Amino acid sequence: MARPRIKDVARHAGVSEKTVSNVINDYTHVSERTRRVVQESIAHLGYRVNLAGRHLRKGRTGIIALVVPELDVPYFAELARHVVREAGQRSLTVLIHQSGADREHELAALAGFGSDFVDGIILSPLALTPDDLREHPGAPPTVLIGELLEEGADHVAIDNEQAAREATGHLIALGRRSILAVGGRDATGLGTAEARTRGYRAALSEAGIPYDPSALLPVESFRMSDGARAVAGALSRGARPDALLCFNDQLALGALRTLHEHGVRVPESVAVMGFDDVEGGRFSVPTLSTVAPDKAAVARTAVQLLQRRIDEATGSSTSADETDSAVLSPQDRVVAHRLVLRESTEGPADS
C-alpha cells in the first residue's frame, strides 16, 4: 500500500492541502473543528510527516552527530541517551560516532565527515588542540562537551575545578590527609583532568596540607583496569593513602577492586570518591560516593546551543530559543553538579 500523502488527507477530510499543512505545522488560525477533522483523517490514514523533506527544504538533513571517545564508557553511554532524547524532541536524528580519542577521527568529525550529511556536531574531544579548531573555520556548527580547547568555542561542562575542590574537601572533612588523585595530571591546560587536579590542589592548600606530586597517579585511559593498575602500583611503592579521589567512577571501581585484593577496608582505612555518578557505582560494594554532573542538563544545553548554531548557519529558526546576537556569541555554559555521598566515604545512603 502506498504511503498516504497530504493530498490524501485533504481529500478524506474535505479540506484543502494548505489547510492540512497548516494543521500539521500547528498554525493558530485554523478552527478547532477543522483541526479535529484533519487530525482524525491523519490518524485514520496513518499519515506521517516527511521530516526528511521538510529538513531538506530548509537546507538541512535533520541529522546531528554526537562524537565521544568511547561508547562503552558508562558516562558517555548515559550522556548519549540524554542527547538522543533531547534531539528527538526537536525532530533531530543523532548519529553517534566513536572517535577512540584518535586525533584523525576527531579531525574527520570536525570536518563533518567529509560530507554535508550532518547539520552539526556535539564533540567530546581528547586528542584535538586549539589550533585544530582554529584551522577549521568552515566546520559544521559544533558544540564541545567535556574538554575546553578554545575559549571562543561553544562549550558545555560542569565546573570541574570546583567539583574536585568540593570532593577533596569532603575527604579532608572526614579527617583524611593522605589523598591520592587517581587520574591526576599536574600540567597546564584546559582539559578536564587538569581542571580537576587544580581543584584537588586548591582544597589541599586551603586545609594546610602539603602537596606531594607523587600523590598524582596518571593513567593511560579512564577505565576500571587503569584505576586498578594505578592503585596497585602506588601500594607496591609503599604508598599508604587514607583516601582516593578518582577522576571518574570507572577508575574508582577499579581502585575498589585493588583495595579489596590487598585487604584494605573501605571506607575504614581508605575512603574512595569518584566522578560521574554512573549506574555501576550505585551497586558496587561498598556503594560509591561520587560527583554527579547533571547529565540531562549537559545534553539539553548542548543540543539547544547546537540548534541555535544550525539556525544561524541556515538563516532560519526551528525553535523558540532566543536568537539575538548576545545569545549567538560563543557560549561557555556551566551546568550543575552535586556530591552524592554513599558508603565508600561513610556518607549517608543515597541512590
Tell me about this structure.
The protein has 351 residues and is an alpha/beta fold. Helices cover 41% and strands 15% of the residues. The chain is built from 13 helices and twelve strands. The strands form two sheets. The chain has a six-stranded parallel beta sheet with strand order 2-1-3-4-5-11, sandwiched between helices. Strands 7-6-8-9-10-12 form a six-stranded mixed beta sheet, sandwiched between helices. Helix 1 (6-13) crosses helix 3, helix 8 (160-173) packs parallel to helix 9 (192-206) and helix 10 (224-236) packs across helix 11 (249-261). The longest helix is centred in the last third of the chain and has 20 residues, at 295-314. It is elongated and about 85 Å long. The model is unreliable at 322-326 (pLDDT under 50).
Q: Indicate the radius of gyration in whole angstroms.
A: 25 Å
pLDDT under 50 segments (min length 5)?
322-326
Counting DSSP E segments of at least 2 residues, the number of strands comes to: 12
User: What is the arithmetic mean of pLDDT?
Assistant: 88
Structural class: alpha/beta
Strand order of the largest sheet: 2-1-3-4-5-11
Percent of residues in β-strands: 5-15%
Instruction: Determine the number of helices (DSSP H or I, runs of at least 4 residues).
Output: 13
Fraction of residues in helix: 40-55%
Distance between the termini: 50 Å
- Helix and strand pattern: HHHHEHEHEHEEHEHEHEHEEHHEE
